[in-house]
Amino acid sequence: MKGVLITFEGSEGSGKSTQARLLLQYLKARGKDVMFIREPGGVKISEVIRKVLLDVHNDIMTKECETLLYMAARSQLVYEVIAPALKAGRIVISDRFLDSTVAYQGYGNGVDIKFIKQLGRFVTDGIKPDLTFIMDLSTVTGLSRTGKNKDRIEQRAASYHQRVRKGYLAIARQEPNRVKVIDARGSRMEIQEKIRGFVDKGFKI
Questions:
Q1: Under CATH, what is the fold of the domain 4-203?
Q2: Model confidence, pTM
Q3: Structure confidence at residue 204 as a pLDDT band (50, 70, 90)
């Protein structure tokens, strides 16, 4: 792979999507060949799966079904977009990737993490992010930012979201070279400056 994959992770309301788009604007302004994608979604099949996953009416969905649906959406996105873009030498910024499944379905729902990682290698064809930012914010603050119309995942108990946050921090401890934890309590541009610093230093952009 000649390109660069940068992923943004974090609990609900952490501001990861905003920061991912700000980095996209920054790199575009510097003339870089960069694109933005989101998970689950990004391509037709994966967007259909996204609707199923986030629909509040699907309240009887099992944790196993949920895990496999996230993986299926990811597989299609990798095949149609991520792998070709990296082979073409592009910078890909992704709003979530495999770490989300480890945190939400593994640490959050209790699905076997070793299994998630094994299946993850299969659906991503071995593609791993070059750099990952975890936007860290207290569970209470994050959930307060999600608004009234919460999706199926956002509606879960605070204890679930606390496990997700702890899961993300565990991932960061396991892979400190790849994963950077960013305090999400500052202003948008204060946070963005920290992110740009890591990107500029890591890839000499």
A1: Rossmann fold (3.40.50)
A2: 0.95
A3: low
